[in-house]
Amino acid sequence: MKRLLLVGARKEAVKAAQKATYPFLIWNETFIPKRNSISAIIATKENSVIPAAKLRKKLNLPGIYPRTALLCRDKFLMKRLLQKQKIHVTPFSILSKKTPALWLEKTFGFPMVLKKRDSSGSRGQKIIRDRSRLQKSIQAGFLAEKWIQGKEYSVESFIQNKKILFRNITEYYLPTHINIMPAALSKTVRKKIDLLNAKVIRALKIHQGITHLECFMTQKGLVFGEIAIRPPGGYLMHLLKMTYGFDPWKALFDIELGKKVTFPKKNKKTTGSWVIHPGSGMVSRVRGLKTIKSLPQVRKISLRLKEGDTLKKRGSVGESYGKILLSTQTRKELLETISKIQNLLKITVS
């Protein structure tokens, strides 16, 4: 019997495969599947993108192969290629141990971003705001980037046979904490984001699967951030289902299996995800949770902290102590609900 091979044991993916009643296996490094036992390979998270691509090539299965996977994993190679394609990216450079701090300061100014070439979700990222931190933060192989000042968006796309079958634009309403789907955009801005998304996908030769592109609308125009070829985090897969009424995991499985997939043409709801992380320290007070749970717009809520807990510093946007998922008929209702929750939820950390 042929099966899906899930690379990366992401709980959402496992539950979705079970719900869709698709036979599946979860890959590990000691397991080498046979060609005739696997129908499609799914990279479920960032660090599984390259292993999944290598397995596809080894087993001669359709989908993303190692060259494209590397370009979408290595931020330096990605941005260098796109820059050559005349796509607007923020200034960047690879660091060595001998990179002069003064040159970085003159080239990028403050704040600047230092991060690993293959990082995701701001993991390991450093935002350098002054000269005192710069010298000790220089690490060979890290990527230095000029800070982008602008409104951030992401684009979630489903692609099959080189064609974008579906795309959604998400608004980063409160970056690293609150996302809204779909974004409220003028026709002009929406068209610019759509064109950028299509141009990047074409330049990187992404012909199949799901992509998550991040970009910024600045005073000087639209700036590309990065793109990933795996399902997004930040509960965006939940929001896609809540907003449009289809199962994005099943859609991805079907695309990789070569099945015909149909997508809704417009959203049914306006939704939001609220990732909770109040910062590091000891929790001295938690208030408002019971009232928030009673709000009709709240679809899911979880909070994994209590008074007396000691919270760690947030290492990436993927780290949190809870979530709130919201669903409303209109953007106005969603914004009103967000404002209400901001007034109700009180988590004091000292």
Word description of this protein:
With 350 residues, this protein is an alpha+beta fold. Among the domains are: 3-68, no CATH class; 91-146, 2-Layer Sandwich (Dna Ligase, domain 1), CATH 3.30.1490.20; 270-349, D-amino Acid Aminotransferase, Chain A, domain 1 (2-Layer Sandwich). It contains 11 helices and 18 strands. It has helices at 11-19, 49-59, 66-73, 75-84, 101-108, 131-137, 187-203, 236-244, 248-256, 289-293, 331-344, and strands at residues 3-7, 24-27, 38-43, 92-94, 112-115, 126-128, 143-146, 151-160, 163-174, 178-181, 209-218, 221-228, 270-275, 281-287, 298-303, 310-311, 322-328, 346-349. The strands form 4 sheets. The protein has an 8-stranded antiparallel sheet, sandwiched between helices. α2 (49-59) runs antiparallel to α3 and α3 packs across α4. The protein starts with a strand and ends with a strand. The mean pLDDT is 95.
Describe the secondary-structure layout.
Blueprint (H helix, E strand, L loop, with lengths): L2 E5 L3 H9 L4 E4 L10 E6 L5 H11 L6 H8 L1 H10 L7 E3 L6 H8 L3 E4 L10 E3 L2 H7 L5 E4 L4 E10 L2 E12 L3 E4 L5 H17 L5 E10 L2 E8 L7 H9 L3 H9 L13 E6 L5 E7 L1 H5 L4 E6 L6 E2 L10 E7 L2 H14 L1 E4 L1
Parallel strand pairs: 1-2, 1-3
Antiparallel strand pairs: 4-7, 5-6, 5-7, 8-9, 8-11, 9-10, 10-13, 11-12, 13-17, 14-16, 14-18, 15-17
Helix pairs in contact: 2-3, 3-4
Characterize the overall form: globular
Radius of gyration (Å): 21 Å
Number of helices: 11
**Which percent bin holds the helix content?**
25-40%
What is the chain-wise order of helices and strands? EHEEHHHEHEEHEEEEHEEHHEEHEEEHE
Which ranges are low-confidence, i.e. pLDDT below 50, for 5 or more consecutive residues?
none
Identify the CATH homologous superfamily of the domain at 270-349.
ATP-grasp fold, B domain
State the separation between the terminal residues, measured CA to CA: 56 Å
Give the mean pLDDT: 95
Annotated CATH topology of the domain at 270-349: D-amino Acid Aminotransferase, Chain A, domain 1
Multimeric state of these chains? Answer: single chain
CATH C-level class of the domain at 270-349: Alpha Beta
User: What structural class results from the helix and strand content?
Assistant: alpha+beta
**How many β-strands, per DSSP?**
18
Strand order of the largest sheet: 12-11-8-9-10-13-17-15
Question: From the coordinates shown, what is the CATH architecture of the domain at 270-349?
Answer: 2-Layer Sandwich
Main β-sheet, in a few words? 8 strands, antiparallel
Question: Strand fraction band?
Answer: 25-35%
